[in-house]
Each structure stands twice: as C-alpha cells, then as structure tokens.
Design a protein that fits this description.
This protein is of the alpha/beta class. The protein has 17 helices and 20 strands. The protein has 2 domains: 234 residues, P-loop containing nucleotide triphosphate hydrolases (Rossmann fold), CATH 3.40.50; 255 residues, P-loop containing nucleotide triphosphate hydrolases (Rossmann fold). The strands form 4 sheets. The protein has a 6-stranded mixed beta sheet with strand order 6-7-8-3-9-10, sandwiched between helices.
Length: 497
C-alpha cells in the first residue's frame, strides 16, 4: 500500500518536564482508516496538532506522499491536502450553515460569487450523505449536524487526509453509526483517515490498523485482524509494576466492616447530556479512611457518576445518602462543606476572570474562617501556590492567564486543602508534571489517613493500584466487580472484556 503520511522520531516537550510525544513513529496508508488509540493525556492530540501545523515539533520529520515537508501552520497542512475535524467545533453560532462554509472556503468574505459553491456542497451531500439545511443557523443544529458542517468545510478545502479528534464524544449512537459510514465511504476512493479515540470498541469497528500510544510513546501497531479488546487493553495499560504493588501491605476487601460508612449509593442510574443512560443501576458504599478507585476506559459513565455523587447531576433513578441523609436533602452550603469535587474538565471549575485567591475560596465561601477576610484568603491562596508549585507571580493573577496544568493544580489544592469529608477526584493528576503528581497522590493519602473517603477516578492504572483500597471496574455504565488492587491481572481482564 502507498504511504501518504509518515511521522519519523517526532518529539514534543512542554514546560514542567512534560513530554507529550517521545520519538514517535507513525504512518498512514492510502485508502485506510488508522486509529490512534490511547487514554486521555497519552499524546494523541498533540501528535495530530503537529501534523496539522497547530504546534511545532522539537525533533523529528514529517513526510507527505514521500516528500519531506515542514508544516508551520494549518494553512500549510490544508495546501498539502490535510484536514482536521476538531473535538470542539470552530463554527459561528449566529451564522447559517452556508455562511460558515463560505467563510471557510472564501476566507474572510461571506460573499458567494456564483452557484459553484452550492453545487459543490450538493455533490458532497449526494456522495457521502452529509445533508444539512444550509439556511439554518449553527445554534439550531444538533451536535451531529454541526460535525457534518465541519466535515463539509474540510472536504471543500480539498482534503484527502482527514484527522478526526475524538469525533464521537458529542454524538448519539445513531450519529456515531452515521459517522462510521462516512469514514468507510471516504476511504473507498483512496483517501485516508486518522481516527483519534480512547474507545476500544470504536477503534475495532471502523479501523484497518490500530496504533496504541501511551505516555507519549508508541507501544505498537496491529492490524484489525490481529486486534481484539484483550490485546489492545494490554497495550494501553502498563502493568509492569504489578509485582511491586502486590508486595505492598494492601488492605483487603473485607476490612471496611470496622470503618464508618460515609456514603451509600443505591441502584443509581444517571443519564448523559444526550438523555442516554450512562450509569446503570450502580450500588456501593464508601467508608471513612478509604480510597475507592474507579477503573475503566474513559467514557464509560465515569463523568456522569462523579457529577451525580457531587450533587451536580440529578439521577434518573436510585439514591445517594451522605452520613445517613439523602443527598438532595442537604442545602448547598452543607453539601459543599461535606463533598469536594475535582471535575474531569478543570476549566469548568474556575472563574477565569477572577484571581487565584478568589478562585481558591469559591467552594469555601461559607467558611467563617474566610468571611470576606482578604488577608486570610490571600494567605490560603499563597499556601496553595507554594505547596502545589503553581507557576504564578502571586495570588492576584487572573486564573484565565494560567496554563491548563496550573489551573488543574489550583482546583486540586482548593478541594484537598479544605479537608472535605468526601472527595470525588476525577483524573486529579492529568496534565501535571511528575513532582506535582507525586504531591497530589501524597495529599490524597493524607486525606484518607485523616478519616475522609475518596472516590478516585483515574486512567492511570499504576496510580489506582498505588492508592486504592478497593477498585471498582466500570464498563458501559455498569460496575462489573469490586477487586483488590493486588489482583492486577483480573482488573485488566475486566477492563478489556
């Protein structure tokens, strides 16, 4: 098969010692869908941003159709026939579909000189089934329809290599099937697709080859015929440290009988933003002095479960009790004092136009210690900045000016340092450098040792094995089993099946 795109020894480093891509080699053939599979933070999007010219590599080379190229911007990528459909769409909500397409094709001009553009769009509709009402405004469209507009924009620029970045994250199941049909049709004529995903079943459903990336490094590439969920899971998760974990003095599953139960979750069913059941009939107890790990491929109901426990998403069925009382019986003031929450998306947990100090007390406003005492607030914020190595001149800096990693540090510091009775921590070390990650792990242990209960949702299996007293494996919204962290093989098997 002809190689249309090749990446050789590409590396990309970010401040704080983060290596996003470490001498990556990757190839794309003519007429194939090639899945790039890995957990969030594995380096998938960084690699694609380099190919599309959004970021520049520190080392390495890129070849397009056998010729070495330097891609300094998306314009260079587009000239080379490379298009990218981003996870977050770049559309103007108050403009129509046709106006958005015209802006993409004509640059800054909305003026459509003839019927040529309209005819080209109609051909795409007929060829790929991408029909969208051209006169509707973007805000009136579903997420699946908006994605079609992004695809049309990219195809009209002449792309024969398409990069999809987690394209199914905003789609309903029916819209996902429609996208896969488009992918299959698009590559029939010799075009090619790179499909970035963290979902094993989707990679297996549509790809010709699958490359697994973990912690910035390529683990390996397998053909669809060679691949199954067991093979891919073993590639995605590093269990090389399992012997070290097993030798630790880990508490077993039955020792919780001597502890105080903090939370009861009973037959909990929760819907996602599209009204589809993401958590199904989940039940468990959380005890004081316990870290309960939630293991599984990201996107299997972890977000919805965490938000429901934190009181931010109303369950469809079932109940949650905290210290013997229904969660919905607590006033906001009481609930916030009991439950800390580190969300999956750190940008949803801060007010970007407020200072670090103000953000540090957003969830502590009911604490009489602060009570609009600027000096105490500043002292608390400065303590957090020093303790968690936040890169900022002082606590008066607006949070919106900080990097994503530093915003994550602020949220983690805020939620841990206020010592909640229960902490729901979703991917707390994602995007952090190694020293800060170790600090966060140490602080989670500190919370546990002081009698708090922690629900730790993480994509880092080593982290779960190190910190958890029990591990609940979740798949498609169902908790399959509670497992001892000593039983690494069983955890990996449950995740993959």
């Amino acid at each position: 098969m002809d190689c249309v795109l090749e990446v050789k020894n590409v590396s990309k480093r970010f401040p704080g010692g983060i290596i996003a891509n470490d001498h990556v080699n990757f190839s794309l053939f003519r007429g194939e869908v090639h899945a790039l599979l890995g957990e969030n933070g594995a380096g998938k999007t960084t690699l694609m941003n380099i190919i599309y010219g959004i970021q520049q590599p520190d080392e390495g080379e890129i070849y397009v159709r056998g010729r070495r190229v330097v891609i300094k911007s998306p314009k260079d990528a587009i000239r080379l026939g490379i298009g990218m459909v981003h996870q977050h769409f770049t559309l103007i909500p108050n403009h129509t579909v046709l106006e958005n397409i015209a802006l993409a094709v004509n640059g800054s001009s909305l003026f459509i000189k003839s019927n040529v553009l309209h005819e080209k769009i109609m051909r795409l509709f007929n060829e790929y089934g991408l029909s969208v009402d051209l006169n509707r405004k973007i805000w009136q469209l579903s997420m699946g329809e908006r994605q079609k507009v992004e695809i049309i924009k990219t195809l009209l620029r002449g792309a024969s290599i398409l990069i999809f970045d987690e394209p199914t994250s905003v789609l309903t199941p029916m819209e996902t099937y429609g996208l896969f049909d488009f992918m299959r049709n698009f590559v029939k004529n010799g075009s090619s697709i790179i499909f970035i995903t963290h979902k094993l079943d989707e990679a297996l459903a549509v790809s010709h080859r699958i490359t697994v990336i973990r912690k910035g490094r390529i683990v390996g590439t397998v053909s669809r015929e060679e691949a199954n969920e067991q093979v891919l899971t073993s590639m995605m998760f590093d269990i090389s440290n399992s012997e070290t974990v097993n030798n630790k003095d880990m508490r077993g599953l039955n020792t919780q009988v001597d502890r105080v139960p903090l939370m009861y979750v009973n037959n909990l069913t929760v819907e996602n933003d599209n009204g589809i059941e993401a958590v199904k009939n989940v039940s468990f107890r959380l005890f004081s002095g316990e870290i309960l790990g939630i293991a599984g491929i990201t996107g299997n109901g972890q977000r919805e479960l965490a938000e429901a426990i934190a009181g931010l998403r109303k369950p469809k069925y079932g109940s949650i009790e905290i210290l013997g009382k229904p969660l919905n019986s607590y006033k906001l003031k009481e609930l916030r004092s009991l439950v800390g929450f580190i969300p999956e998306d750190p940008f949803l947990a801060v007010a970007p136009n407020l200072s670090i100090a103000e953000n540090m007390v957003l969830t502590n406003l009911y604490d009489r210690v602060f009570n609009i005492n600027d000096n105490k607030i500043l002292q608390f914020a400065q303590q957090a900045i020093m303790q968690f190595s936040v890169v900022a001149r002082d606590a008066s800096i607006r949070v919106g000016l900080l990097s994503g990693g530093n915003i994550q540090k602020i949220i983690v510091a805020r939620e841990i340092l206020r010592k909640p009775k229960i902490l729901v921590a979703s991917y707390p070390t994602r995007g952090l450098d190694v020293p800060t990650s170790l600090k966060v792990r140490s602080m989670l242990k500190w919370l546990k040792n002081n009698g708090s209960g922690v629900i730790l949702i993480s994509e880092d299996l080593d982290e779960l094995l190190e910190l958890s007293d029990r591990v609940a494996v979740i798949s498609k919204g169902v908790i399959k089993e509670f497992v001892s962290p000593n039983d690494v093989a069983k955890i990996v098997t449950l995740i993959s099946n």
